[in-house]
Amino acid sequence: MRTFEYRLYPNKQQAHLLMQCLKASRILYNEMLEAVKTQYEDKGTFPTKYDLTAQFKGRGGNQVPATTVQTLADRLSKALKRFLASKELAMNVGFPRFKSANRWHSIQLRQYGSSRDVWLDEDGKHLHVPAKLGKSLKIKLHRPLEGTPKTAHLVLRADNHWYALIVCQTEPQTEHFLSTCAHPDIGIDVGLKSFLTDSDGHTVENPRYYRTSQKTLRRKQRALCRRKKGSHRRRKAAKNVAKTHLKIARERRDFHFKTAKQYTQRYHHIAVEDLAISNMVKNHHLSKSIMDASWGAFLDILEAKAESAGHQVIRVKPHYTTQKCNKCGELIQKSLSVRTHICTSCGSVADRDVNAAKNILGKAGVRPSGTVSVGSPVELKSPQL
């Protein structure tokens, strides 16, 4: 499944209808959650999504389409299932909570197809939606859809623009076989000083988008705190802060995609560490930098792009990848500040991250690329998409 995002250009009346549906759907979701809590207190059971759909049938009125009401019941049902599954695993999770206005940004249209909930016009310039949402919304298709569209979401971003997220079912790519794929294999070690270092000795610099935007965020957040609560100027200042966070997220995501693409197109097997990031961020000295680098999101993108290219990402256990010598296997204890690996057993000298990347590749049990560069690491530039 792949999601394609496109910008929408509704007129004033359509924008008003979209906002009314967004507000009304949030209220309906909260009423469903209240009904769930009431039934659990009375009977000790949770209603199914079919019970919720039947109970709230026709409650959408002139603002919420009937199928959107069904998706609200489905959304709440999935949230309850995740909560119960997490409780069985003894995880510290909270019960699904009521949604405030700043936690509700999307309208789901369940069925994609001609004369259904949502579909694209033949000219590709208009998106047909239910009449309660404006009937025909102008859309900018900056790239063609791939696969079979299944459903769509209308999302209001922090920049106050509407976007259409169309979910498509794509055909899975056939993985290359070692005998037919000419691409080599590589190991990748993610870090904070450099974003990643591979077993060939290449590095990609850490852009630190949040760190570089902290001065701007500090100024805007101070302006927000000076505004009176509930005032129009405070809402305006809050939107200004949200726009900066949205820009940071977009820059980081663009960087992740460009970096992932250059590796998934060049290498067959990509070995990475299976990091427990939720445990790593408990270190309050490094948590901000770890979240700024967003390794988890990058590795997920890397896996998705490798699958679409017919390649594979292999996650290995991270134990001793930094301390172990990649040539003789001797464990050389070193602190985080020591950036050079010097083996006292075989005399091997290498960059700390390059040594770790080679160990990761060795743990994956795949063939090395045989193109290890000599000398200092060279930055691997991200191509423009």
Account of the protein in words:
This protein has helices at residues 12-43, 49-55, 66-88, 209-212, 214-226, 232-264, 277-280, 287-293, 295-308, 352-364; strands at residues 2-9, 106-109, 119-120, 126-128, 136-140, 148-156, 162-169, 186-190, 194-198, 202-205, 269-273, 312-316, 340-342, 349-351, 378-379. It is globular and about 75 Å long. Strands 2-6-7-1-5-4-3 form a seven-stranded antiparallel β-sheet. Strands 12-11-8-9-10-15 form a six-stranded mixed β-sheet, with helices on both faces. The protein is 39% helix and 18% strand. By secondary structure, the protein is of the alpha+beta class.
The computed structural class is alpha+beta
Helix proportion of residues, in percent? 25-40%
What's the rounded overall pLDDT mean?
85
Give a quick account of the main beta sheet: strands, pairing sense, barrel closure.
7 strands, antiparallel
Q: Would you identify the regions where 5 or more consecutive residues have pLDDT less than 50?
A: 368-385
N-to-C terminal Cα separation, in Å?
21 Å
How many beta-strand elements? 15
Order of neighbouring strands in the sheet with most strands: 2-6-7-1-5-4-3
Radius of gyration equals 25 Å
Compressed to H and E, one letter per element, the order equals: EHHHEEEEEEEEEHHHEHHHEEEHE
Overall 3D form: globular
Number of helices: 10
Strand content: 15-25%
